[in-house]
Amino acid sequence: MALVESLAVAGTSRILLAVLDGLGGLPRENRTELELAATPNLDRLAAKSSLGLLVPIEPGITPGSGPAHLALFGYDPVEHQIGRGVLEALGIGLEIKHGDLCARANFATLGEDGKVKDRRAGRIPTEESTKLCELLQQKAGRIEDVEVIVRPGKEHRFVVVFRGEGLGEGLADSDPQHDGLVPLEVSSVQPGADKSARVANAFIARCAEVLKKEPRANWVLLRGLACRPALQSFAERYKLKPACVAAYPMYRGLARLVGMDILKTGETWSDEVATVRQNVQKHDLIFAHFKETDKAGEDGDFDAKVELLERFDEDILPKLLGLKFDVVCVTGDHSTPATLKAHSWHPVPVLVWSRHVRPHACSMAFGEQACGRGSLGTLYSRQLMGLLLANGLRLKKFGA
Amino acid sequence: MALVESLAVAGTSRILLAVLDGLGGLPRENRTELELAATPNLDRLAAKSSLGLLVPIEPGITPGSGPAHLALFGYDPVEHQIGRGVLEALGIGLEIKHGDLCARANFATLGEDGKVKDRRAGRIPTEESTKLCELLQQKAGRIEDVEVIVRPGKEHRFVVVFRGEGLGEGLADSDPQHDGLVPLEVSSVQPGADKSARVANAFIARCAEVLKKEPRANWVLLRGLACRPALQSFAERYKLKPACVAAYPMYRGLARLVGMDILKTGETWSDEVATVRQNVQKHDLIFAHFKETDKAGEDGDFDAKVELLERFDEDILPKLLGLKFDVVCVTGDHSTPATLKAHSWHPVPVLVWSRHVRPHACSMAFGEQACGRGSLGTLYSRQLMGLLLANGLRLKKFGA
Question: Are A16 and A325 in contact (CB under 8 A)?
Fold first, then answer.
C-alpha cells in the first residue's frame, strides 16, 4: 500500500467504483445469481474489460461491511479494525470526529436484587426508546468536560458518543452478556483509557438516576466501546478528490472514515445515479454503493437478487456509462449467496474497464466463472485501488 | 494466521484432508501424471468442487516433507522450522516430548591419527548397527541427569534423543563433513545450549569408550541437533478434534507435532481407509496421508505414479466419499514430478468440496491445468486451513 501511495500523482482522469453490496453468490442449479441474471450491458462491458476475483480479506474469511469496504478502499482491514460502537454509530448516520468514543447501548431491566432481569428491556418499541434517548440527551448530555451524544436505534438499542479530550479506547463492556448477572462497570484494559472508563461509568450512573422510575428500561448497558480509527485520508493517499454516493448511512459513514466527500442523495438507486450525474465533474473518484443486492442475499431470496442485478444492468449501468468515466469498476464488497443467507468468504467478481485494459474477449456472461478465468486473476480487495489508479494513469513508474 | 485462529469456532461439521504425497507433476508428452491418469471419480468430484493450486512455501521453493506439511496444517513453515534431528526422530517413529533434544547420528571410523577415516563406517549393515545401538542404549543411556534414547536407522545411521531439563538448542555439528578431518566437539552457538553441548560431548566420549574395539564403527558423529518446535496445538488453534491416519512414521510424527490424535493403522492404503472409517465419527478433521505417489515420483517412475493415482481414484476415493464428510479436500504436500525424480517447487493441485463451494463446472480432468483455472486461484498451502474451516462453517465473520 505504501508503494501505491508513494507513486500516486494527481491527474485529470475520472474513476467510478460501483459497489453492488454482497455481489458474489453461489450456484442454484449450476448458476449463481449473477450468472443467471440477464445482464446484456454488463456482459458487453465485460467483453472489453479485465475481469478477476477479489478476496476481501484472506481465503476463507467472511468479512463484515466495515472491513470489506476498508479493503476496497485500499486499507489493510486487519491492521485497521473498526470497533463495533463506531460501526453502530456510522450505521445510524452519526458523524464521528477524531477522538470520539462510541458505544453500542441497550436499555435493560434491572431487578431489585441488582441483577439484570432483561438485557433488552422487553424489546421496548422504538418510539418509547426514542423518547428515553431524548430524555437522556437532556439529563446526561455532559459528563465532566465531555459532551455526550445519545441517539436511538431500533427497539431497545441506541448509540452513545462521548466527545472530549483524552478519551482513549481499550474498554471492557458493562454488559454481562446474560440475564441474571450483575451489570459490570466499564473497565479500562489498556493504558490511557482511565478517563473513558470513568466518564462511561458516570454516564451509566446518571442514566440509572434518570430512568429509575421506568418500569422496564431502568438501566443502560454499554458494549463495543471504541474510537474512530485513525486512517490516512483517501484524498491524500491517492492524490485525488473522492466522493461517496450511498443511500445507506453505514456506507456514507465508512466513506467518511477515509475522508471522502459525502454527497447528499435519495433512497433509491435512481436517486443515487442522479447524484452521481450531478457531481461527476467535481470529483476524480466516485464510490457509488448499491445496497439491496446484499439484502436479497441475506433474505435467501435468490430470485430477488437476480432481479436486482437485472435492474442494475438495465436501468443503472447504462446511465453510469453515459457519464464517460475514464475508469469503471463494478464489483462487490463481499459475497452474500442467497443459498447461505449471509455474507460469505467467496471471492467477488470484479470488472475493470478503461482504454488501457487487456480485454477479456470471452463470450461468457459477466459472473463468477468468467471472472475466475479473467486476466486480473484472483487478487485481494486491498490491491484494487492500485489497479484503478493505474488505469487512470495516476501512478508514476516505480524505480528507473 | 492469527486471524483464522481468532475467528475459529467449534462446530459439528467433519473435514477430510486427504494428502497424496508429491501429488503435483510435470508433463511427459503434454500431460502430467495426474492428467494422464484415468481418474473418473476425482474428475466427477472436481466438477462439483472448487479447484486451485497451492504454493507450498513461496514461488520457486522446493520444500521437504516437514515444512510442506506444516504449511498444509496452517503453520508458517519459515517461522516454525523443524530441525533435522527432530525430523529424523519422527521418521523412525520416535515419540518426541517437549524439551527433547534430537540428533541425527552416524557410526564412523576414526583412524589412529585421530582423523575421520570413513564418515559412514563402511556403510555397515543395518543389523550390525542395530546391535551397536542396543549396546549404546545400555552403556550410554544416561548422561548426568539426562536420559539418552538411541534408535537405529538404516545402515550407519541412527537417532539420539536427549531427554532432560534445560537442554536448549543452538548447537554446531560434531560431524566435520569430510573424511580426513578431526571430528569436532559439539559446540553451543546460542546462549542456553551449554548443558546440551556438554551432554552431547559426554555421550560421544562414552560411545567412543564402548566402541573402541569395533573395527569399523568406533566413533559416532552427531548432526542436526534440534529441539521439538513449540507449536500451538491444532485443536486449540482451530477449535476442532483432529486425527492423523498415516502408514509412515514421519507423517504421524509431523501430525503429533501439532497435537493431532494419531490413529493406529496398517501399512497399506486399504488399512488407512479402514482406520478412517472406524474413526470418522470421533473426530472433526481427519488428515489421511498416502505416501507412495511421492516414492514413484522420486524413483522417476512416471507410469507407477500414474497407476497409483488410478488406484487411489478407483479403490480409495469412493470409500472416503462414502463416509459423508462435510468438507473434502484432496491435495498434496508438494510436487514430485517423475521427470525430476525429486520434490519440486511447482504448485500442487487442490480440490475442495463442500455444499458451499462454487463448482468448477468444467469438463477437464482433475489436474494441474484444470486447477490452474480453478476458482480458488493460486494460494499458499498455509491458507488452506482457513478455507476448509470456512467450508465447514467453522469461522465467525470478521468485523461487522
Answer: yes
Count, in order, helices (H) and strands (E) of chain B. Answer: 15, 16
CB contacts, 8 Å: A81 with chain B? 399
Which stretch of A79-83, A123-127, A372-376, B152-156 has the lowest confidence by average pLDDT?
A372-376
Q: What is the reported pTM?
A: 0.91
Q: How far is A280 from chain B (nearest CA, A)?
A: 31
CB contact under 8 Å between A377 and B376, yes or no, is no
Tens of pLDDT, residue by residue over A153-172, are 999 999 999 999 999 999 99
Cβ-defined contact of B356 to A63 (cutoff 8 Å): no
Nearest to A59 among B361, B379, B397 (CB): B379
Interface A-B, measured as beta-carbon pairs within 8 A, has a size of 99
Which domains are assigned to chain A? 2-82+233-391 (3.40.720.10), 86-227 (3.30.70)
Residue of A nearest to B354 (CA): A26
pLDDT in tens, B3-55: 999 999 999 999 999 999 999 999 999 999 999 999 999 999 999 999 999 99
Q: Is it the case that residue B141 has pLDDT exceeding 70? A: yes
Q: What is the ipTM of this complex?
A: 0.89
Q: How many Å lie between the alpha carbon of B82 and the closest alpha carbon of chain A?
A: 26
CB atoms within 10 A of CB B48: 17
d(CA B348, CA B290): 15
Contact (Cβ atoms closer than 8 angstroms) between residue B101 and residue B170? no
Count of C-beta atoms within a 10 Å radius of residue B276:
24
Cβ–Cβ gap B356/A340 under 8 Å: yes
